[in-house]
Amino acid sequence: MTLYPNNHSDAQMMDTENTNTEGDATFSITATLTIKKSGGAELAGKSFLFTVVNSDTKTVNKVSVTCKANSDGKSASGTVTLKLLAGIYFLASGTYTMQGDIQVI
């Protein structure tokens, strides 16, 4: 069985799975979440820990983003991309907490 996001002919396949022992198809639909930290040049070489929590399963993912100096010499940034199950997530970093939930679809 194959799952597509819509009926468009140019749609990319989202996931494939076999049926379980009862003959039911089971899917784990995943999506990506990219976290970016950016700021002044003083952030170059510094790492920042982010905690991403699935609101339903309470699964916790802790990731680190290390900033590198940008070519302008005035700023620095870093990114990390997570592959997560589709759902609603809570994001926190140090003393900063994102207001509201992140919907990964």
Provide tags for this entry.
three-stranded antiparallel beta sheet; elongated; five-stranded antiparallel beta sheet; 10 strands; 105 residues; mainly beta
Characterize this entry briefly.
This protein is an all-beta fold and 105 residues long. The chain has no helices and ten strands.
Mind explaining what this structure looks like?
A hairpin with a 2-residue loop joins β8 and β9. Strands 4, 5, 8, 9 and 10 form a five-stranded antiparallel sheet that branches. The chain contains no helices and ten strands. With 105 residues, the protein is an all-beta fold. The relative contact order is 0.23.
Counted beta strands: 10
Cα end-to-end separation: 20 Å
Strand content: over 45%
Task: Describe the largest sheet.
Answer: 5 strands, antiparallel
- Average predicted confidence as pLDDT: 78
Give the oligomer, counting copies of the same chain as homo and different chains as hetero: single chain
Query: Which structural category do the helix and sheet elements fall into?
Result: mainly beta
Give Rg in angstroms.
18 Å
Bulk shape: elongated
Helical stretch tally: 0
> Element order, helices and strands?
EEEEEEEEEE
Outline the low-pLDDT stretches.
Answer: none
Residue share in helices?
Answer: under 10%
